[in-house]
C-alpha cells in the first residue's frame, strides 16, 4: 500500500481498548453523514467491498458515501467490536434508516477492517442485510449525529 502522510490514532498494533476506541471513532464519523470527513479515515488507495459494490480509492469511497446518505435518510448507526489483532478489527453493526417513500429498515452486518501503520483504513469488507421494519419498531431514537455515550449499544439492545 502507498505511504500516507496523515495519521488517524489510535494506531496499530491494537489493544482491546484501542480497538474499541477505533470502532467508536468510526461509528461517530459515519453518524455524522459527512462523506468528506468520513473518507479521510481511509488511505488514498483504500480498497472496499460493500455488499456487491467496490471502491478502489478514497475518492471512490467518498462518492459511495454521498450516494448512500442521499438514499438512506435519518441514518443512525451502532457498531460493536467483535475481534481484533495487530492491525485488523472485526465489527458487527446495525443501523436504521428510511427511504424516499418513508419505508423503514434496520440493516445488520459485519465488517472486516485492515489498517496501515498510520491508523488509516486500507481495506474494508462489509456484508449487510436489510430488514424492513415498521416505524414503531425503531430502536434508535437519539438526535441525528453522534450516539450519546449513555445510549445502549448493540448487545444492550439485544441485537
Number of helices: 4
CATH hierarchy: architecture: Roll
Counted beta strands:
6
How large is the radius of gyration? 15 Å
Notes on the protein architecture:
A 6-stranded mixed beta sheet has the order 2-1-6-5-4-3. Helix content is 25%, strand content 38%. The chain is α+β, with helices and mostly antiparallel strands. The protein has a single domain (16-157), classed as Nuclear Transport Factor 2, Chain: A (Roll), CATH 3.10.450.50. It has helices spanning 16-32, 35-39, 58-71, 154-157, and strands at 42-50, 53-55, 73-84, 88-98, 104-115, 121-133. The relative contact order is 0.20. The mean pLDDT is 96. The N and C termini lie far apart (35 Å).
Q: What is this entry, summarized?
A:
With 159 residues, the protein is an alpha+beta fold.
Amino acid at each position: 500500500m502507498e505511504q500516507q502522510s496523515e495519521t488517524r490514532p489510535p494506531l496499530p498494533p491494537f489493544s482491546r481498548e484501542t480497538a474499541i476506541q477505533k470502532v467508536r471513532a468510526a461509528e461517530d464519523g459515519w453518524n455524522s453523514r459527512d462523506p468528506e470527513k468520513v473518507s479521510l479515515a481511509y488511505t488514498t488507495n483504500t480498497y472496499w467491498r460493500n455488499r456487491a459494490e467496490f471502491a478502489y480509492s478514497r475518492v471512490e469511497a467518498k462518492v459511495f458515501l454521498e450516494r448512500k446518505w442521499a438514499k438512506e435518510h435519518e441514518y443512525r448507526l451502532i457498531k460493536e467490536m467483535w475481534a481484533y489483532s495487530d492491525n485488523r478489527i472485526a465489527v458487527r453493526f446495525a443501523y436504521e434508516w428510511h427511504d424516499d417513500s418513508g419505508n423503514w429498515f434496520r440493516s445488520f452486518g459485519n465488517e472486516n477492517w485492515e489498517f496501515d501503520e498510520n491508523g488509516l483504513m486500507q481495506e474494508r469488507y462489509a456484508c449487510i442485510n436489510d430488514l424492513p421494519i415498521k416505524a414503531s419498531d425503531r430502536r434508535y431514537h437519539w438526535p441525528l449525529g453522534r450516539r450519546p455515550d449513555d445510549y445502549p449499544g448493540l448487545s444492550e439492545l439485544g441485537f
